[in-house]
Write a structure and sequence with these properties.
By secondary structure, this protein is of the alpha+beta class. It folds into 2 domains: about 1-30; about 40-140, no CATH class. The protein has helices at about 5-15, 20-30, 50-60; strands at about 70-75, 75-80, 85-95, 105-110, 115-120, 130-135. Strands 1, 2, 3, 4, 5 and 6 form a 6-stranded antiparallel beta sheet that branches.
């Protein structure tokens, strides 16, 4: 009985499942992103950054009701992952499951091609020196 056809088929299917040759795997080894990053350094200003952030936070937060101490900085260009992107920093305290409020935490929202891409939780480096203004729309979120 000749096993070569079955062995070749198994090898081909393994190559498809693994994403192909190792040279192509590096391209897919990126973090999760909501937009297709074309790597363009000339990024447009995210004109609707406030509404996009509110829409994301409404689904991101376990309980978006009663968010306190909402503050937002205007988008500025920063280098994120070796690429120039618009980043806006935000600070807020969301209610915990026990009803208490922790200290406000700083986060960075990254925009690619003028659209919200991702939220970075550990934003101390990206948001250093950010000038915050009140973000009252955050306190008005509902479920």
């Amino acid at each position: 009985m000749n096993c070569w056809p079955a062995a070749m088929l198994a090898l081909l299917l393994t190559g498809c499942a693994s994403g192909g040759p190792a040279a192509f795997v590096a391209e897919d080894n990126r973090g999760i992103s909501y937009t297709d990053d074309r790597g363009v350094s000339n990024q447009p200003f995210p004109a609707s950054y406030r509404s996009e952030l509110l829409a994301y936070l409404k689904t991101y937060l376990n309980n978006p009701v009663g968010v306190r101490d909402g503050a937002l900085a205007e988008p500025v260009q920063r280098t994120v992952g070796g690429r120039l992107r618009y980043v806006t920093c935000l600070r807020f305290a969301a209610r915990d499951s026990d009803g208490s409020y922790p200290a406000p935490r700083e986060r960075a929202a990254v925009f690619v091609d003028g659209r919200f891409d991702r939220l970075i939780e550990d934003a101390a480096e990206l948001c250093g020196g950010a000038t915050y203004a009140s973000f009252p729309e955050l306190a008005a979120l509902t479920r």
